[in-house]
Design goal:
By secondary structure, the protein is of the alpha/beta class. The chain has 13 helices and 18 strands. Helix 5 packs across helix 10.
Length: 511
């Protein structure tokens, strides 16, 4: 099936993937490409969106896209940096703001006669994130919206289907952001809304059949949503040629190795459990730098899979459940200028010694999209509703070096916290939750005796995509009960704190 396509040009914004996610929520297919690598098949795209950027259009390293085949030829939406770029290089003026314009704002003026702002009214909340501001509109620019502090918050250009906004419609803080994108893509650009989970499944299975044919594939299962959906997709495409391996890296949650293997019984998958916990813990000995821990875990995972793949005759592919947030936080998904936040163990290819090719069916999807695809595949909703768990496991929730004793303490703490969320009917109201073992001891009193033991932090966030997140306001009574249970039942812990940081500026995990 041929879908209408939207092109998103990436100027390095960490929110570029969110633009794609919002577009896909409208059942519209889109692709992200670097601003300087516009596809030669540009004619295939019905509309174009320019992303934001950490760069300034007034700086020495201006990011110049070639818009020759876009301006006046395609409906164009420019966001933040894109809006400033069009203004600055088309006869307008961009200057440094007196104060950094960041956070929530409200529209103080809206031109509701414009289809672009249909059903979006004065007072609507938007999200700003910029240090430059548009002082003068470009030639033929027409003002469409303002806020109290940003006069030129939105404009269009006469004579072309070009629209520009200073705020970010892709973040959920912009209340009518999705509506604005729909107005532009559906009503103005006439893009068809025909990209659905069912169509993704159908097209991906056909792609995998064609790509893999009779080849054998080895897949590392984690028990989570991403690897499970990857497994079912591959199983539909190649059946018995898929070999699933679930590795115990010694950094899983309490009882997780056994429960995950039990979970896959009856799903028609060929699954082998491999206990490599001692191998991982030994490799991590003495390492306290979070990036080094991630690299070591990634290396040992590859070594384990290499060992296991050697036992399968003629296996040619390694499948991974990589998704968009993994990619964008490790390196720009398309080689663009986005900054690296942290590396992920399943991103970046394979070493030369491993003679397997990589297949990643989900690498263009966000977590919520993966869940919708999983529902389309008939996967149990309880499994799909499981909280995300980091690939490196508890290694990045233990700040400092890794020891068996620390892993045991954190497993016990985490088990009390997660089971407590389930018992209090809070689990499904949380996107992701976990405990962090801090590298500090604190003074306490137990039974009239002085103690000097570990401190743990509890973390629970709500999100839809993992790119932004807010801390969850858990009931005080719940936190009190969990804190008491942890301190009374987990030897070595005498203090519990709760993390109330949002992403950004913090990340969901501490490392």
């Amino acid at each position: 099936m041929q879908h209408d396509k939207v092109l998103i040009l990436d100027f390095g914004s960490q929110y570029t993937q969110l633009i794609a996610r919002r577009v896909r929520e409208l059942s519209i297919y889109c692709e992200i490409h670097p601003f300087n690598k516009i596809p030669i098949t540009i004619k295939e795209f019905k509309a174009v969106i320019l992303s934001g950027s950490p760069q300034s259009v007034r700086g020495s390293e201006v990011l110049h896209p070639d818009l020759t085949n876009i301006r006046k030829k395609k409906p164009l939406l420019a966001i933040c940096y894109g809006a400033q770029y069009l203004a600055h290089f088309s006869g307008g003026k961009v200057a440094s703001s007196n104060t950094r314009e960041y956070g929530r704002a409200n529209l103080s003026y809206v031109d509701n006669n414009e289809p672009f702002f249909r059903d979006i009214f004065k007072g609507s909340q938007v999200w700003m994130s910029h240090s430059d501001t548009i002082k003068t509109l470009p030639i033929n620019g027409v003002l469409l919206a303002s806020t109290k502090d940003v006069k030129n918050a939105a404009y269009r250009i006469n004579g072309e289907l070009t629209y520009a906004i200073q705020f970010h419609p892709e973040v959920y803080h912009t209340i009518d952001g999705k509506k604005l994108l729909k107005n532009f893509l559906v009503d103005i650009a006439n893009v068809n809304q025909d990209w659905t989970p069912d169509s993704f499944v159908e097209e991906t299975v056909l792609y995998l059949k064609d790509k893999l044919y009779d080849d054998k594939v080895v897949l590392g299962l984690s028990g989570g949503v991403d690897s499970t959906v990857t497994a079912i997709l591959l199983n539909k495409a190649i059946g018995n040629n898929l070999y699933c391996i679930f590795v115990n890296n010694g950094l899983l949650r309490k009882y997780e190795f056994e429960s995950v293997l039990e979970q896959y019984e009856g799903m028609g998958l060929n699954v082998k459990g491999v206990d490599a916990s001692s191998r991982f813990i030994k490799a991590l000995s003495g390492i306290d730098d979070p990036e080094k821990k991630r690299k070591v875990i990634g290396r040992v995972f590859i070594e384990v899979f290499d060992d296991e793949s050697q036992l399968i005759n003629d296996v040619k592919w390694l499948a991974q459940g990589t998704i968009y947030p993994d990619v964008i936080e490790s390196v720009s998904a398309t080689g663009g200028p986005s900054a690296t936040i942290k590396s992920h163990h399943n991103v970046g290819g394979l070493p030369d010694f491993m003679k397997l090719k990589v297949i990643e069916p989900l690498k263009s999807l966000f977590k919520d999209e993966v869940r919708r695809v999983g529902l389309s595949l008939g996967i149990d909703s309880k499994l799909l509703g499981r909280h995300p768990f980091p690939g490196p496991g508890l290694a990045i929730r233990i700040l400092g070096d890794i020891t068996y004793e620390k892993v045991k303490i954190l497993q016990d703490v985490d088990d009390i916290f997660i089971n407590g969320l389930r018992e209090w009917k809070l689990y499904d109201k949380v996107w992701q939750a976990g405990a962090i073992l801090l590298p500090v001891n604190s003074v306490g009193v137990m039974g009239d005796e002085r103690t000097y033991e570990k401190c743990v932090a509890l973390r629970a966030v709500e999100s839809t995509d993992g790119m932004t997140a807010d801390w969850v306001n858990l009931p005080y009574e719940f936190l009190q009960k969990i804190s008491n249970d942890i301190i009374n039942k987990v030897k070595g812990v005498n203090r519990v704190v709760y993390d109330i940081s949002s992403k950004p500026p913090a990340t969901i995990e501490w490392e």
